[in-house]
Amino acid sequence: METGLIPSSTQFGAGGSQVPSRLGTPTRKEIHPGFWEKFKGPQEGPSEDFNFDLLKEAVSQIAMRGSLTDYMEVVMQDYPDMQKSWRSKARFLLDVYKEPDAKTAKLMAATFFFASRINYISTGCEYMATQYCAEVRAELRKFGKSESWSKDTVLEIESMIREKYFNFKAMAEKELSRGNVKPINGWGDARMLVETDARDKETPSNSNAFQGSQNGSSKTEVAKPEKTRQAKECTRSGPLAEPRFDPAAMREDFNHAEEDSPDGALSERQIEDVDCEADPLMADSATERDESTLSELCTFEEVAAIPVRAPFDYDLECLKDGVRRVLGELEEFRDGRLEVNEEEDRAWLQNVEKNVLNPDQFRAGNFNRTIPAWEELLKDSKRKTSKMVLGALKEGLKPSFEGTDNALESKRKVVKAMLLKTVPKREVSSFLTGKFPSEIEFSNHQSAEDNADFVWNEVKSNLASGAISAYPKGSKPKVVNPIGVVFNPKPRRILNARYINLFMKSLPKCLLEPAQSADWLGFVVDSLLEIFRISEKKKLKVFAVLEQILESDEITARMLASMAGKLVSLGPAMLPASLFSRPLFAAMQGKLT
Description:
Strand content: 5-15%
Strand order of the largest sheet: 9-10-11
Largest sheet: 3 strands, antiparallel
Shape: extended
Helix content: 40-55%
Radius of gyration: 33 Å
């Protein structure tokens, strides 16, 4: 039985109580609870074979009747009482579906998403998740219809939802730490929670998650979420999408799912597509959806029409003289010979706009035009970093690639999820091999499309300042990174370069391999002997300050303070070190000569 639906004749989502006038309003008598029994296996275990024709028949019958409200309520009546977690989730999803106000429905859906995170801590905290949803719904009613909401009102509601979530989450974690509830294995993996008894644990891995146990005992297990593929065709009008039912496309997707998991197990994509750390209120709740898309705004013609500011015309000799003057003043200040002219400083501050460059006329990429001044500044420096800075100014930064073999598994997992949305699953591994990234073009995050005008204004600003430039028409870079928008609390454009970063050589910030001795803040921490030792590098710094004091004809307060600070910092390795700094502090106060 195949049924074609006209998208405009059925409204799904917020306001779902509206039904096609030609079909009439559905009643519970049309589909009775026994209708669903043929989708279940015998009571002792679920059916091993999935009947796609039965599923298609159910979808067709429900869709032809329009509203799903009554049928969802019938399904919930058929839930076993012991599976309260599933029942409460279905009830809240039904409330979201029945909500006629689209903005309120979105906030309710976000609340349900947050409530699920509380369950990820422990199924024993189900009562907290239910109470959290109830309190949020009560607060939402106080704000009335969304037609009267301002942006500040939306931000206030979102703040309330988050605040209540963090409060309930803290309570759940507290109960877990006290041992009052049992933890969930795999917390953080974004997996659905199912209660099964001990006998169910011996059934095959593709057992039906909704099949309840016969006795009252139950144990907590983690099951993976069902795979949901994107619809082949859909139309979008306003903030809600109207799905177009296509049985052929649905059958094709189901066949693909069987190919991806021939043994009945769920693929990696099914796990990684769900982001437990995502904020459901972050995407576009605080702002209305823009009418124009990025592809309509950001065209080659528009980019070419943006004037790029000319580089500032520096007087190089004047810059070098200015550097010498500043260095001389710093030396005089260090020796206590600099006389401060307050009137001159006050006059400079009163005309500060004339004495500094206009930030609105900023032009990126000016460092390499002022290299003579940098050379004057660093000519006497013997530090390795000084040479590195000069090299970067003259030749630019050169990234070091080493491949993904040493990449952290957490970062690899995120990049895999990005690739699964862009390339076929069988090709993902090929994009993570080799020393350099492969050629790929990622799609922008949905938040960028939802805030297209903001992103386009940011791009225009960067183009005008020279911070970015457009590729010639007909060409593109090897890797096209996606962009998005986050609110914290103001909108900020982000560039997601995680795929490239996965291949880059990372500077170690910690020891990944266990060690008994390591350098830390100028000390050698020896866990074998249980002592702190002063590192050779720190010793050389102390000796350098001592030699400077011994060889100087005049000792300034700054030199004494530097020596005292060096001695005090040796405390963890030399407990009496601070005692030797007392005469230095006395000399600075004039009590000792």
